[in-house]
Structure formats: C-alpha cells, structure tokens
Recover the amino acids of this structure.
C-alpha cells in the first residue's frame, strides 16, 4: 500500500520536473529574444556561383574575379513574412579537396541550395552526387532543398536544357529556380523560399517531436495536461 | 544549500527544488519499504502460498522502478557542482570559495546519506531474496521445485531488464532537461556519459548496442591532453597564436607571470589538491577556466604535473644525454653546443623549454621579493623536468641568450565575435585570422574524431563566420592599400614557415605508422617511376633516402625546401619562360620566388590539415572498434573461442583460409600502389594549383 503511494508520489514528482523543465526552457529562451535561426548551406561544384549568390544576397555585390572558397559563413537578419529571422549561410567549397570539412557542416545544415551553372552540364551532373551526399548525412528525404540553376543571364551560352532541370527537380520532389547572381535575378527568392521550407519543416518537427515525447511517457501522461 | 545560492535558485527554479523533492520522495519511499517489511514477515510466518509470493514480486519490481531515482539523486550533487563553476563568474573570490567549501561538505554528507540508503536498499533486496528462498523451500515440500525456481529466476531477469530500460528512459529525459541549461549542457552530458560508461562496465550486455559513440567516450577521455606526447597535447589543446604551446602550460605561465612573481608561495607551497584536481578536469574537458580556479601554488603544480606526465623527456630521449654531457664543457664552447642542441629540438619541445626557462628566469629575477632562487625551483621542478641541477641552472641563467626569440606575452584567445572597433590594420587582422583558423582546424579535428554536439556545431559556425568576416576585412584593407598588396601578402603567411617543422614532425610519425605495417619492397618499385616524373622536374638536391618511409616523407614535407633549392640555384626551365618575360618590369625574381613558396606553403598546410583530420578520425575509429571488440569479447567470449578452434581444424577451412590470405596480400599490394598514386597525384595537383594561382596573381598585377 505504502509503496504504491510512494510510487504515485514519485510519478507526480517526475511530471512536475518535466513541467519545470519545459517552463524553464521557455524562460531561458525568452529573455535572450533571439530571432529564429535558419541554417542554409550552399552546395555545388566549383565555379558555379555559390559565393556569388551568397555575396549578392548578403551585401548586394557581384564579384567578378573567381577565388575558390574553402568555407565561409555569413549571418544576416531578414524579415520573413513579417517575422524577423536570422539566416546563417554557409558557403562551401565546390572542390572535392575539402569534402572532409564539408561533412561537418552538412550535419548541422537545415536547408540546402544545390547550385549548378546552366552553362556547364558537368556541374548539373554533379548535383546528383551532392544530393546523395546530403541525404546520406541528413538521412532524410524531405530535407528542405532547392535546385538552383545559376548564371541565367548567360542564356545564349546555355548548355543544360530547362526540361532536364525541371525533370530532375521533379524526380527529387524539390523546387527548381533559375537565378543570376550578376543581375540579382531570383537571388532573394531562392533564399526566402528555402527559409520558408525550413520554417514549415521546423514547426512540423516540433509537432511530431511532441507527439513522440508523449508516446514515450504514455504512462505518466495522465497529468501532463498541465503542459 | 538553498539559502547559500539564491542566484542559482533564481536562474533554475527547478534545480534545488527538484533535489529536495527527490529527497522527500526518497524518504517516502523508504518509509514505504519499511512498512512493507513487517507485513511480509507476517506473511511468511503464516506460510502463505503462491499468491503472496506474486505480490512479493510486485514489490520487487517496484524496488527496481525506484532505482533510477536513486541514480539521478547521486548524480545531482556533482551536477550542481558543475553548474556552480559557471554560475558566478562575477562574484567575489572569497565568498565563492567559502560557499563552495560549505557546499562540498554538504554534498559529501548527502552523498554519504545516499550511499547508505542505497546500501539499505540493497540489503532489503537481499532480504527479499532470502525470504523468497525460504518460501521456495517451503514449496519444495509440496511441489517439484526446480521448475519453479527457474521460472522465478527468469522473471527476476525480466524485471532487472525492465529496470535497465527505465534507467535509460530516465537518462534521455534527463538529457532533454539539460538542453535547457545552455552553457553547461556539454559538460553535464559528458558527466552523464561518464556515468553511462561506468554502467557499461557493470552491465555490458544490454546497453552497448546502439549507444552513440560520444556517449561512451568524452573528449577528455578519448583525446587526453595529460600524459600524452607533447606534440599530441599541443594538437589537441593549443594556444591559437603562434607560440605552439599547450594551453595548460600557457595559462599556468601566464598566471604566474601576472600574479606569482612577487609571491613567496611560488614554487614552494603545496597546492590545494581539490582545486588542482578541478582545474585539471577543466583542462581535460577543454572547458573555460576563470580566475577563481587559479592561485599561485595551483598554477605551479599544474605546470609541474603536466611536465612530469609527459611520456618523453622535454629534451627528447635522444638529446637528453647530450644536453647533460654538454654541461661539463668549458664555457666558450658550452654555449655554442647548447645552442646547437636546442636547435635540434622539435618545435613544440623547443617552445615549451624556451617558455619555461624564460619564465623561471623571470621568477629568479624577483628573488628579493619572492625568495625563490634557482635551488628552490630545481627542488620543485627538477624531478618533473628530469634535469640535473647543473643543466637547469645553466638554462635559467642563460635563458635570454639561449632563447632570444621568445618573449613571455599574455595569451589572448581567439575572439568570440569581432567588435566594431576592431583594428583595421592588416597585420592585426591577419594575426586574429590565424588564431581563428587554428581554432577552426581544432574544431574540425575534434568533429572528425567523432565528437559532434550541438554546442560544437554552433561553435564551428561561429568560428567560420568570424573567419569569413576577417577575410573580408583583410581583403578590403588590402584593396585600399593596393600598391602594398604584395608586401602585405607575406604578412598573412609569415608564420607559416614556423609551422613547417611541426608538420614535418607529425608527418614522420604518421607515415611511418601507416607504412611500417606494409612490406617495403612491394611499394618501392611501383612508386619510383611515378615519383621520378616529379623528381626530374625539381632536380631534387636531397638524395632520396633508401628506406621507403623516409623517402615518402621527404617528398611530402621537404618539397618547399627542394623548390627553394632549385629556384635559387638553377631556375628550372618549366616555369621560367611562362612568367619571367611578362612580369619583369613589375616583379623581381626574388619576389616571384617568395610568392611561389608562400603559395606552396599554404597548399601544403591545407593538405596537412585535411590529412591530419583524416588521421584523427581514423585513430578514433580504431579506439572505437577496439572498445567494441573488447565488449563483444566479454559478451560472447566463450562461445566464440570454441567455434574458432573448431574451424581451424577442418582441412577445407584451411584451404579457404590460405586462399583468402593470398587474396588479402594481393589486395594489400594494390592498395599500396593506389595510395602511392593518390599521393603522387596530390603532389601534382598542388603543383598545378600553385601554377594556376601564380598565373592569376601575375595576370592581376
């Protein structure tokens, strides 16, 4: 009898702890007043314009001279559908040499812009591999992901047919957008579209995660209504 | 405890409340158990039958259920201790110390209590078992008991398994909560992992599978910084400026230089053991230290224990004897011999020695205030350094002459963010950039070793962002001073040559490690033809050594030296016609050479860091696999060995074995040749990249 009472006490106590944990987590977040942070990673072969897109988005500048990137990271505050958010952009190396470093970043990325140049079929082919790599690291088919055909200002030198791009995007079930880092065409769009995907993804996640947690504590769920 | 730390209470309302809650809970529980006992005895006395025994089992299960709470309880004091060290960076020192001491006492007492309680519980469980046994004896009279017993045991097992599961659940929950405590999250996790580790030893069978790696090892456990070769310690936890000292050493010397020179305690007083232990743990876990962790005796002891735990002499095994012998030489030659011997030391040893001796010298300079002379330093540090008094005295008195290029400057760690008023001058930006890149490399290396936590991820992105910011700044500064751009470039890479010996050193180990297991003769013929292609071009002045590993290494790290030789002596034809005619008006030959060497240096450094990262991850993989093997062996050691011994005896198996062995040998050979090819191609790639970069720079200017 007494042990049963003790047991009940212990479970209620555990629930209280959970509530405390939840409330303190809410509290610790509020005072900081940090806007939500979305982590975006640029991938694609060398020279397709990942850095150019990033710099255009960050600083409205177009850099003509090419300098291979090892890895660069930027942060910017933007207003996404009326809500202030922060975007972290990681500009990775296209060259295979830095693959080891790249993996470390892939793991923490929340959304990916997979860039190729519409004037360079090889870069288009390479997107396949990047996609696989990302899926391998993230282990998630529905990770926020955009296929981006850059250098749309060089339409006369186009060597990757639009149909092929759309087809691939269809197969992956991701959006396809053509951009020009030079003319700033669609540059904001790709970043904002991706952020929206990340955002909706996060809210989904938190919902399912809550569900899971509840499943786990099924037995102690009864009084969890306080939450 | 609650009253003494109101701040913590405010910050984490759940922290102490929960603890007291737990305690009351616990006492409730034991109460219940106490009441439980007599009733059971009653039952026993009346010789109740099966039903009662089932009820008993129910209680036993409950006891199992409760054990997680005990667990968390034992955890809590250490946790609160942990958080403490972070909570009051601003409080005054004495206050903090007092409160900490008190808390320690309290913690100890609570620990004792908990231990007692645990023991009580165990006893109770034992009693229960005894009771069961008694009951079973009684049943034996009525039934055929053996089957029963088995059943009983099986059920008991099930219960204990459930207990384990619950344990796990509890832990995951615990972790979720920990996420709240942003700052010390990592720490606490690691603590928990420690706990889990211990658990694993106790019950390896159920918990091993599927436990992520970082939960078995902590960074401090897997990649220790104490008691490992100096080079490794520097790689794992270093100052991110150009000194190449282990952080422990630098921090200790910094502290002593700042606060110890005028203190009579320096190299004399025994440290507070607990404080020393705490500081040591902080360094092992790569945690931040705050001034209140330090005092003069502790800093001395820290330095001493780091040095005495180095597996090798600070003067290296080969040179130690020569150093000692050199003390006997008469003066004019003595200094020259010493200088030449010091020059032979590996960079990290040289740095450590130089800093120590310069520091000791400055301590002795203040003898009138701190009353520490060479003798007292020798007493304190001689055994750790394993140096004779003569040698140590010589080093200290001649420190300035022997190590003229070292000055004791306070370490400024890499910035956490770039302030708005960050200096706009290229040297300062590039100095900070180097620090940040060093930090970034370290984070990458740690992650490659398998230590991936959200906190480290965050750190990685932040460091990367600062690097990017600095690069942009540097570029804009350089652009604004366009004509100087060429002279400034060297400043970015000034320090690279200093790194050279370190790299060489580490590579020697690595290459020998990787190669020594493989048959040398096999690799040699495959390698040389490809290697010739490059050797021809460079007309290497260094005759390749006959042994394979050394040659391997030669090619790799002495390359810059080779190129230097060729360019200075007989400029090779293959790059001369390309660049010289165009650029003569603007760039002198010398500048070109410098530029080329710099580029080459940068390339190799990059290559080095990548390889280093891979090596680290592989080393860690080895550790991990070994531990898994060990665990597996423990689990199924007996059955496995039986099977294996059977397999060996059948002739068919023998055949298969031989075939496989042959195949393996072939594959090994192929692998070797592939490694060589990759290596050669890397070299070629680097060369081509340099070519490209040179052209680009030249065409720009």
């Amino acid at each position: 009898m007494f042990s049963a009472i003790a047991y009940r006490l212990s479970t209620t106590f555990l629930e209280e702890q959970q509530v405390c944990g939840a409330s303190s987590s809410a509290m610790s977040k509020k005072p900081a007043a940090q806007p939500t942070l979305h982590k975006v990673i640029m991938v694609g072969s060398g020279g397709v314009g990942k850095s150019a897109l990033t710099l255009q988005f960050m600083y409205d500048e177009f850099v003509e001279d090419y300098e291979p990137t090892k890895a660069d990271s930027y942060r910017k505050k933007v207003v996404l559908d009326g809500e202030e958010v922060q975007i972290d952009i990681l500009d990775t190396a296209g060259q295979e040499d830095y693959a080891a470093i790249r993996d470390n970043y892939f793991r923490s990325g929340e959304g990916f812009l997979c860039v190729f140049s519409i004037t360079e079929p090889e870069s288009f082919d390479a997107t396949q591999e990047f996609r696989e790599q990302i899926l391998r690291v993230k282990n998630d088919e529905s990770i926020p992901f955009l296929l981006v055909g850059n250098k749309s200002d060089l339409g006369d030198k186009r060597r990757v047919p639009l149909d092929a791009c759309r087809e691939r995007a269809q197969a992956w079930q991701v959006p396809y957008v053509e951009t020009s880092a030079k003319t700033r065409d669609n540059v904001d769009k790709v970043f904002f579209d991706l952020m929206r995907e990340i955002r909706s993804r996060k809210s989904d996640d938190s919902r399912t995660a809550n569900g899971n947690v509840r499943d786990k504590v099924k037995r102690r769920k009864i009084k969890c209504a306080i939450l | 405890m609650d009253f003494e730390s109101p701040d913590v209470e405010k910050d984490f309302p759940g922290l102490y409340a929960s603890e007291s809650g737990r305690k009351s809970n616990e006492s409730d529980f034991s109460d219940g158990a106490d009441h439980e006992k007599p009733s059971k005895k009653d039952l026993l006395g009346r010789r109740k039958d099966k039903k009662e025994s089932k009820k008993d089992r129910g209680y036993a299960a409950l006891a199992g259920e409760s054990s997680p709470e005990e667990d968390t309880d034992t955890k809590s004091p250490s946790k609160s201790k942990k958080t403490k060290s972070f909570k009051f960076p601003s409080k005054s020192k004495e206050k903090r110390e007092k409160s900490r001491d008190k808390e320690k006492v309290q913690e100890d007492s609570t620990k004792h209590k908990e231990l007692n309680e645990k023991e009580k519980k165990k006893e109770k469980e034992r009693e229960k078992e005894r009771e069961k046994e008694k009951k079973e004896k009684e049943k034996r009279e009525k039934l055929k008991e053996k089957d029963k017993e088995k059943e009983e045991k099986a059920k008991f097992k099930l219960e204990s398994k459930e207990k384990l599961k619950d344990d796990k659940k509890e832990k995951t929950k615990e972790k979720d909560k920990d996420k709240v405590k942003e700052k010390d999250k990592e720490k606490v996790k690691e603590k928990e992992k420690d706990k889990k580790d211990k658990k694993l030893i106790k019950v390896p069978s159920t918990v091993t599978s599927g436990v992520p790696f970082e939960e078995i090892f902590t960074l401090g456990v897997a990649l220790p910084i104490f008691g490992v070769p100096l080079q490794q310690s520097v790689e794992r936890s270093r100052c991110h400026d150009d000194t190449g000292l282990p952080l422990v050493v630098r921090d200790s010397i910094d502290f002593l230089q700042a606060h110890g020179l005028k203190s009579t305690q320096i190299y004399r007083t025994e440290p507070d053991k607990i404080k020393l232990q705490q500081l040591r743990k902080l360094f092992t876990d790569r945690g931040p230290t705050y001034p209140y962790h330090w005092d003069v005796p502790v800093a001395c002891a820290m330095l001493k224990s780091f040095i005495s735990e180095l597996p090798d002499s600070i003067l290296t095994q080969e040179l130690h004897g020569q150093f000692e012998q050199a003390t006997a030489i008469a003066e004019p030659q003595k200094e020259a011999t010493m200088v030449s011997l010091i020059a032979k030391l590996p960079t990290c040893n040289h740095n450590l020695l130089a800093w120590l001796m310069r520091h000791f010298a400055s301590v002795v300079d203040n003898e009138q205030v701190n009353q520490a002379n060479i003798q007292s330093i020798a007493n304190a540090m001689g055994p750790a350094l394993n140096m004779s008094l003569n040698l140590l005295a010589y080093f200290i008195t001649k420190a300035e002459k022997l190590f003229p290029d070292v000055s004791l400057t306070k370490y400024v760690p890499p910035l956490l963010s770039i302030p708005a008023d960050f200096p706009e001058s290229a040297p300062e930006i590039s100095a900070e950039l180097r620090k940040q890149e060093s930090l970034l490399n370290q984070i990458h290396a740690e992650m490659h070793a398998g230590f991936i936590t959200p906190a480290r991820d965050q750190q990685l992105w932040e460091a990367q962002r600062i690097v990017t910011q600095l690069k942009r700044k540097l570029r804009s500064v350089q652009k604004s001073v366009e004509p100087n751009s060429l002279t400034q470039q060297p400043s970015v890479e000034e320090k690279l040559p200093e790194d050279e010996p370190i790299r060489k050193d580490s590579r020697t180990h690595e290459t020998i490690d990787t190669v020594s297991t493989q048959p040398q003769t096999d690799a040699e013929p495959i390698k040389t033809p490809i290697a010739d292609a490059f050797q021809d071009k460079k007309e290497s002045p260094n005759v390749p050594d006959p042994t394979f590993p050394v040659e391997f290494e030669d090619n790799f790290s002495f390359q810059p030296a080779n190129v230097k030789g060729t360019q200075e002596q007989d400029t090779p034809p293959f790059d001369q016609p390309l660049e010289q005619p165009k650029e003569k008006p603007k760039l002198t030959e010398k500048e070109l050479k410098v530029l080329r060497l710099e580029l080459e240096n940068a390339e190799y450094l990059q290559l080095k860091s990548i390889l280093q990262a891979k090596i680290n991850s592989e080393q860690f993989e080895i550790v991990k696999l070994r531990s898994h093997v060990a665990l597996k062996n423990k689990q199924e050691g007996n059955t496995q060995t039986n099977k294996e011994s059977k397999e060996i005896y059948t002739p068919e198996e023998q055949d298969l074995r031989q075939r496989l062995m042959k195949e393996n040998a072939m594959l090994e050979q192929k692998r070797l040749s592939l490694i060589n090819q990759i290596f050669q191609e890397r070299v070629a790639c680097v060369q081509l990249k340099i070519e490209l970069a040179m052209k680009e720079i030249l065409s720009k200017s």
The CA atoms of residues 203 and 209 of chain A lie 10 Å apart. Chain A touches chain B at residues 1-7, 9-10, 13, 16-18, 20-21, 24-25, 28, 39, 65, 70-75, 88, 90-91, 97-98, 100-101, 104-105, 107-108, 213, 216 (CB under 8 Å). DSSP finds six helices and six strands in chain A.
